[in-house]
Structure prediction request, 356 residues.
Amino acid sequence: MKRILLTPLDWGLGHATRCIPIVRELLRRECTVFIAGSGDSLLLLKNEFPQLRFFTLPAYQPVYPSGRNMVWKMILQVPKFMEVIKNEHLQIESIIDQNKIDLIISDNRYGCWSARIRSVFITHQLNILMPKGFRWLERPVRLLNERLIKKFSHCWIPDYADEKMSLSGKLSRYNKSSSYQVTHIGPLSRFKKPVEQPCLYDIVCILSGPEPQRTLFENKIINQLRTSGLRYFLVQGVYSKEQGNVPNESAFLNSEALQNVISQSSVVIARSGYSTLMDLAALGKKGIVVPTPGQTEQEYLALRWNKKGVLWSMTQESFNLTIALRESNRYTGFTNGCNLNTELLTQQIERVLSGL
Prediction:
């Protein structure tokens, strides 16, 4: 029985949610699964898999700006992040020794590898985009990213290799001559194939992402929802927060409950994070996406799918519910679904496990 350690990054919940199908597949193969992480992402996985054993890793605790000066804010925190990477690596080595781990699967935690056993790094961002005025940083950042990934045995991209089917676009493009092994495993979603359900909500709004922007967006949209006269459900996406008593509003929902709510809605309002797009594609939903200000990844994904006529996007600063709903009628959404190919993930897990 193989013993696998999963380590999702704690920046938001997306890295944890897309690990859920991996955990399910490993458990189906009767592997012993351990999970190490921090923050709300760790709480989310504890809620999904209470029977597993968990470890707490050092938290990155990135501090985000209330404005758009994201780059300088992140650059100033690089020394702190590198210290976390160093410390989590030391802790991983200890966990391996104490629990006889056979394989590590790390979702964007750069320190979660070991020279003694195989390790997998999961990312959809081999190209980290920079805003105007900082494009000169893209090449050195990409080279640093590659150097850190080379410490792992494998690199899995949760997307399709075919550009026409790709959800992440240029974010996941890479140099074919790279020395590390890159494999596309198909998009990952915690949601299962949907069954038709009655429409109970005109809107489901899923708030997520880092503070203070998550709360700023909540303050922007909550009164618009409550006074709209529409049937809505609001998910605040804060796992460490106590549930309130406001009808049709919830601090958090587990995967099954959230899938039911989304499946019973006409349109979803959410951030344009990559994990959210994979979930919308898996459920074949229409969406209105609002990128987190200053996050170039989300801004690129929102623009990419807006240009394709799939998702209406709007900035947080200018968000207006009435306009967003009207304009979104011209967009198809992932109405035909993305036909997520879980066989790609199954094949890669089989390939890695067979080599242990």
